[in-house]
Specification:
about 0% strand, mainly alpha, 10 helices
């Protein structure tokens, strides 16, 4: 049987070191960390480049955000003018409801219109079996204390609604819905009519687009030819 140390001399730790073998091994060990560091640096640069691209993309979205309220290109100026006749007229049209919802999102008060829409859907329930799950969802989302989208209700209205939530009827949320409706009509609706996006719709203007910053042009020697210095400033 052949001696394994003869077949695999690298296993013989007592044998003399082969200079060429260990030279190759040492160079490999030295190159691996270097290659790893280069690879890591390249990955970092790629991630940084991707991050910058994303930040520029979102910055463009932020700059164009006010114009998003006027994306309803199908709305004519005449139709937009009718929204100003009454709050009920605005909510009765899908385009008007969408535009008003987007406006409330800019004011961080979209929970009011979402609650109103949920109540409208609730009243369309055809059977008593549908009322209970819908009522609990509306109550837990918009009315109960510390609800994720709690609306601003007076104590009496909230208490009345809470007492009837276990045995809901078709009119369980009417008082709360009317309160939120009046709040939007008297507060948010006038500001919507004064907002730039709505006024742009009335005037038939296109949605505003984000303005891109232009790079500053580098001056060249030719830009200064024929220009004499003003020594009076000295």
């Amino acid at each position: 049987m052949e001696n394994p140390l003869l077949l695999f001399p690298q296993l013989n730790i007592s044998a003399s070191k082969d200079k060429s073998y260990y030279k190759v091994m040492k160079s490999t060990v030295k190159e691996e960390p270097h290659q790893a560091s280069k690879s890591g640096a390249k990955q970092k640069r790629n991630r940084l480049s991707l991050l910058l691209q994303k930040s520029e993309f979102h910055e463009g979205d932020h700059l164009g955000k006010p114009g998003n309220l006027t994306e309803t290109a199908s709305v004519s100026p005449e139709e937009a003018v009718k929204w100003g006749e009454s709050f009920d007229k605005l909510l009765s049209e899908k385009a008007g409801l969408d535009a008003f919802t987007k406006f409330l999102k800019t004011e961080f008060s979209e929970e009011n219109i979402e609650f109103w829409i949920a109540c409208e859907d609730y009243k369309k329930s055809k059977t008593a079996h549908e009322l209970l799950p819908k009522a609990k969802t509306i109550y837990e989302t918009f009315i109960q204390k510390d609800a994720p989208k709690e609306v601003n209700l007076d104590f009496q209205t909230k208490e009345f609604t809470s007492q009837n939530i276990e045995r809901p009827i078709i009119t369980t949320f009417d008082a709360a819905q009317n309160t939120v409706y009046r709040l939007m009509e008297q507060d948010s609706y006038p500001r919507f009519l004064r907002s730039d996006p709505y006024l742009n719709l009335v005037k038939g203007r296109n949605p505003s687009r984000p303005t891109l910053r232009r790079r500053s042009r580098s001056f060249t020697v030719s830009d200064f030819q024929g220009v004499r210095p003003d020594l009076t400033v000295w």
